Amino acid sequence: MESAKSPQMVALADELQGGGWRRPRRGIRALAIGSGLVAAGVVFVMFNKFGVIKGGTPKPEPQLIGTIDLRLGNPVAVAERGEAKARLDIEAGLAQLLVYGPVPAKADAARAARLKQRYGLVIVHKGQTPTPLLQAYADGYNRVMHAELERRHGREVADRLLREQGVELAAQEKKDAP
Prior knowledge:
The chain is mainly alpha-helical. Helix content is about 60%, strand content about 5%. The protein has helices at about 5-15, 25-50, 75-90, 105-120, 130-155, 155-165, 170-175; strands at about 95-100, 120-125. Strands 1-2 form a two-stranded parallel sheet. The longest helix is centred in the first third of the chain and has 24 residues, at about 25-50. The relative contact order is 0.09. Keywords: Membrane, Transmembrane, Transmembrane helix.
């Protein structure tokens, strides 16, 4: 005895109603369709981003431009960075001098406290032997700080403070010379 319904109709009814030994697979099918659409969208976006799909007017190819920063080992540029840092420190209210050499003895701690109290000046000792670039940075930094100390306390006081700390401003002396 055959059913009056065609086999396709029975299969369709089983799918829709979940009858018989078949289970409904709507969730899996919806997930598969959604994943396929997302994957197709991702592929389309990637093709568009990498220029596989070219539409409209052609864009010129981007040029690879390389630069070499020659300022890295340049003492003049390093001195300019020291000057810029000194200006930032002055704006922040710091007044300090960079000095290379060994850290002074404890007896100088009282002297450093007096300098801080009287002039607002902090001496920063760098306990290493300076390289030409480090010395250029310190010279630029100290040159701007010297000008600030001179503005605040007068030229004699600023020169005396630098002499006491053993700071030499060779570039400043060249600018002052006629």
